[in-house]
Amino acid sequence: MNALAVADSGRALARRKARRRLTARPLSVIGLVGVVVVVLVALLANWISPHDPTLPNFGQVLAPPGAGGHLLGTDQLGRDVLSRLFYGSRTTLVAGVLATVLGTLVAVPIGLVAGYFRGWTDVVISRLVDVVLAFPFLIFAVGLAAILGPSLRNVVLALGVAQIPGVIRVVRGEVFAQRELEYVQAEVVNGTPTRTIMFRHILPNVLNPVVVQTSLAVPATIVGAAILSFLGLGVQPPTADWGTMLSDAENYLGQAPWLGVFPGVAIFLTTLCFNLFGDGLRDALDPTAR
Amino acid sequence: MTRLVLYRVGSALITLLLASIVVFLAVRALPGGPAEALSAESNDPAVLKAINHKYGFDQPLVPQYFRWLGQAVTGNFGTSPNSGLSVSSTLLNDLPVTLELAVLALLVAVVIGIPAGVLSARRPGGALDSVGSTGALAGLSIPHFWFGILLILGLSVELKWLPAAGFVPIVPDPLGNLEHMLMPAVVLGTGIAAVVMRQTRSSVITAMSSDYVRTARAKGLSEWDVIGHHALRNSLITVVTVIGLQLGALIGGVVTVEQVFGIPGVGKLTLDSVYDRDYPTLQGVVLLTALGYVVTNLIVDLVYSVLNPRIRVAGGAQ
Fold first, then answer.
1. Interface of B with A in 101-160 (CB under 8 A)
2. Overall pTM > 0.90
3. Do A139 and B251 make contact, defined as CB atoms within 8 angstroms?
4. Nearest to A283 by CA among A17, A9, A3
């Protein structure tokens, strides 16, 4: 009991230190601010969008930025690009964050089991992981999305499943190392139930690398979702989505180049901010890495 | 050491065998059978049945799988119902295009990534390092397909310097070929350049604080001799490993880049066979991708353990 209390206060101290390291780097703070802005835009899209994102206006097709009250112009159906960008942040965040979180939630217990029990359990799990990892991430996601059919839900499923093996590997490796440490051996000798050792004692100690991997997986997943939609295997029209907007834009690059610029800027800045924040988080949680 | 090699090769073979089952089953789970795709004009059940029978799609899965695997091992992936050509001839036709693209992309990655990494490592935290590291982060964050669209907008639509899309074979027209490959290679190369830069930077920084670099400095070598001949050369092992491990990203990137620039390589073949529900081609191309990926990872793994005695000893004890 006493030992646990000490451990908890030690953890609180470590957390405070990590927070200080994170906020000491201007780039990480910029990343965090950017992430917050995107989340706010997604939440407030209803209120801040000047127009209906899916309402066609054939009287004003391919209007350049600034024309007729459309700050970023209109697309081939006369829809307001700015409003579509605001709404598009929703599908982007849902796909990027939800897929990563779901994948991680499934992968962590599996990795914990593989790393703790070792032997046959580990052989079977690791072999399955190897098989999925035999396919490059995007090929696997494209195949899965093609099987499941094009929709936002299936994009989340495909990208979520595609990242399970990577997380399992990280968790398994960490648990492997932790399992040999004295605090685990002590609990085993004490007769602590296995489940308690795994989730109460080992899990908190392997969480940092998982958090780092997750935060850096979000931007990769956001790009993956945009690619699936761009290829026609993801979000379907008329829903506003950055990948779909770019795929439409490809046919009008000559007449309306802005259509090919703005959605890409949105994807780029969003992934950049997530990457900056993730990098900062990694350095804050694991100062020895890098 | 022999045991380690045998163990790794054995597990790679098992992985590939299981992967072939995944490919086989996954392709059959695609919505809408190939017969439906082929007989778009006629929905006659007799026609569907004839097509299914002709390609063996009406047989039980297990014999179908073994027949397919047996042929695949000998390089026969069947015939595409859509084009009527043998899958292996299509693959052989498209593979060189993709390999050329990959080689050019790696060239771009190395030419940008290694010098940028060395320059950043000279003074960590300095102005050059900030520019380099931020640039690498931007290179990692920029989606391939959008970067491609931007280049097309700038260099093709606006400046009309390079053709927007398409492909010219290298044999009769090497210059035209390069014109078409330049933008795709740059797009594909920048993401990898970012990874190469980061790895070079951190390896060189580590090397700079080592004893042999201090000795080199003490000998009175110039700063560039110290970096070029001592710090960088020892860092290259990990850099090469990291480049090898970028193959997955490279293959994924090839799919979108070939689609954006209309290059008839393996990536476009993969997507087209997904769109057309071309079962035999899809199976062949995905299996080939997995083979290439697993074999490269195996080679990187083995080369790395040969070069790094700590892994060699630990692995040999297994």
1. 134, 137-138, 140-147, 149-150, 152-153, 157-158
2. no
3. yes
4. A17
Q: Is B260 on the interface with A (CB under 8 A)?
A: yes
Contacts of A95 in chain B (CB under 8 A): none
Residues A130, B289: C-beta atoms closer than 8 Å: no
**Is pLDDT at B314 greater than 60 in this prediction?**
no
Contacts of B164 in chain A (CB under 8 A): 253
In tens, the pLDDT along B92-146 reads 888 889 989 999 999 999 999 999 998 888 888 788 888 888 888 888 888 888 9
C-alpha span between B141 and B206 (Å, rounded): 26
ipTM of the modeled complex: 0.81
Q: Which two tokens stand for residue A213?
A: 């991997």
| Cβ neighbour number for residue A237 with a 10 Å cutoff | 14
Asked if A261's CB is within 8 angstroms of B16's CB, the reply is no
Coil, strand or helix at B217: helix
Which residue among B153, B256, B290 places its CB closest to the CB of A135? B290
Residue with tokens 């580990």: A122
For A268, the token pair is 């780029």
In the structure encoding, which two tokens stand for residue B293, read together? 């990926």
Question: pLDDT tens digit string along B189-243?
Answer: 998 899 899 888 888 888 888 888 888 888 888 888 888 778 887 777 778 777 8
What per-residue confidence (pLDDT) applies to B225?
82
- Res A226: pLDDT: 92
User: B15, A272: Cβ pair inside 8 Å?
Assistant: no
- What are the CA-CA distances from residue A164 to residues A100, A129, A132, A171, B148 (Å)? 9, 8, 9, 11, 30
pLDDT digits (tens, 9 = 90+) for B258-313: 988 989 989 899 888 888 878 788 888 888 888 888 888 888 878 777 766 555 54
Is the backbone of residue B278 left (phi > 0), alpha (psi -120 to 50) or beta? beta
Contact A81, A259 (CB under 8 A): yes
Is residue A95 within 8 Å of residue A155, measured between CB atoms?
yes
* pLDDT class of B316 with cuts at 50, 70, 90: very low
Q: How many angstroms separate the CA atoms of A273 and A35, rounded?
A: 6
Q: Which residue of A has its CA nearest to B28?
A: A147
Alpha carbons within 13 A on the beta-carbon side of A17: 10
